[in-house]
Amino acid sequence: MLLLACVVAPVMAQAATPECAVWQRELSFAQSVQKHDAAAFAGHVMADAVFDANSPQPTRGRAAIIQHWAPMIAGRTMRLDWYPQQVVVSGDGTLAYSSGAYLFENMAPGAKRRYTIGRFATTWRRAVDGVWRAAFDGGDEGRPASATEANAFRAGRVTACPRSDTAALPVIRH
């Protein structure tokens, strides 16, 4: 019993941190696109969200965002994948910032630019129901990438929150 407590308690403590909750939520958000699940995707987005927030023409509101993202969610002509590399939560635990890498894959046969790698940033708001939902989302234009770089992106995915009582989340250096 003591052994079980020594194994389960640290895992539960890690999952309970707000940073780890947002980390897992970001992974779940990406998974909704990978699984082509528009309903799950919508469940990650605030009703008043703003996507492409760093662009001259942001997309406003969940319905417009879902419509704009429909081709990416369908995944027939393009695939999008991403994962967090940094999460920071506000002192009051109601806002969070996550950022990381994304990989865009053009599925068109003979596409000149098959892969694009870039960076994204999402601002999360904890809703009244306690669920973290994306309030603002944006990213850079990315850069062309090789198949080797795409494979490195996939290999770099960290699915477990790196946060623990003795370690901080990674710092991103450009």
TrEMBL record:
One of its GO terms (molecular function) is isomerase activity. Keywords: Isomerase, Signal. Coiled coil: none annotated. It comes from the Bacteria. Pfam families: SnoaL_2 (PF12680). SUPFAM superfamilies: NTF2-like. InterPro entries: NTF2-like_dom_sf, SnoaL-like. The keyword Isomerase applies. The keyword Signal applies. Residues 1-15 form the signal peptide. Residues 29-132 form the SnoaL-like domain. This is Ketosteroid isomerase-like protein. It comes from Rhodanobacter spathiphylli B39.
